[in-house]
Each structure stands twice: as C-alpha cells, then as structure tokens.
Design a protein that fits this description.
Helix content is 35%, strand content 25%. It is α/β, with parallel strands linked by helices and 206 residues long. β6 and β7 form a beta hairpin. The radius of gyration is 16 Å and the shape is globular.
Length: 206
Amino acid sequence: MFKKATDIFNDWAENDKDQGMEKNHSNAVETMLNLLVKNKITPFTFLDAGCGNGWVVRKIKKHSFCKMAIGIDGAKGMIEKAKKIDPKGIYIYKDLMLWTPKSKFNIIHSMEVLYYFNKPESLLSHMLEKWLEPNGQIISGIDYYLENVESHSWPKDLNTQMKLLSKKDWKILFEDCGLKDVQTFQTNASKKFPGTLIIYGRNKVK
C-alpha cells in the first residue's frame, strides 16, 4: 500500500530532514525567486504551496515590496515546525485541493509539489481559479521528471505515488490549464544532475 506524501513529510519534519530540503533546493529556489521579483517595484503578495518548514516564506518576506507572504502545506508536522521557527508568520495546515483563501495572490511558488498529485492539472487549475490573481505569476520547481533518470526510482524508494512527465509534457500541462507566457528551463545542473526543471507562467486576464 502506498504511503501518502504528507505522511512522508511529517516523518521528515520529525527527523529534521526538512533542513536538508532547504539546503538541497536553495540554489534552484534562489533562481526562481529572482525571476519572479528581481525587478519588482510595486507591492506584491506571495503564496508558497507546499511550504514545508516555511523557509521560502521567510526568505521572500525580506523583499522590500513583499506586503504579505503565506505558506500552506498538507503535512501537519511541517506547519508546526514553520510556526515554531517563525511564530509571527502565517502558515496554514490544509489539504491544498480543499483550501480557498480569502483573497488571491500576485505570486504562487511551489518546489517539489505538483508531481505528488495523481492529477497535477487539477491542483494547478484550482490554484489558477481560486488562488492566483488575473495576470499573476506562478512558478514550480521539479526534480522528478522524465529527463532526470536518477529520479525514476523515487516512488519505489519512498513507497509513494508520483506523476512522471517530460519537460515538454509539463509545459503542455501548464498551457492546457490556461496559463500564458509559459517557459521551462533547467537550473543548478551538475555532471550527475540535469538540473531542477522550472516551469513558469502567468494567469489569464479575465
């Protein structure tokens, strides 16, 4: 029987593996955040979907034009840790597919989240309809994808379900969900690692 991804992340929070996640993904996330806000000259709101211990939220809150940053995660242990590290921060424990915020965000960020859903297009569509402002930006970082052969054993290693798609398939999925200006590229590559796949797009204007 497969293990829920949220149960895996609860275990990781308990065993302090969240610190390794921050270390391993920091370079890729830095690239993602630079793409989103490097030239920002107006206030923006930010949501980290699958925020873990909240490290990306804490990072983006330091930006001079960030007027609000929130994290949401389906792993209770991660949210408890985020609140412990940052008591004044806003971190929400909720199933991502069931949550609707009171107001929408200018930017949505996610790292290593979408492929844990059997139908990532359902989550993405939910984000675009319920979470993201018209013309808002969304960006996702993914290490589990077809061209990264070393990652193919992860579902078996972790005993959980994951959705394996190619770089092209992820781009098409974002476009099919109605996003515009969709871009894909890889960052933080090495001899043994083809890089984190970054998918970026803007919400349609209603």
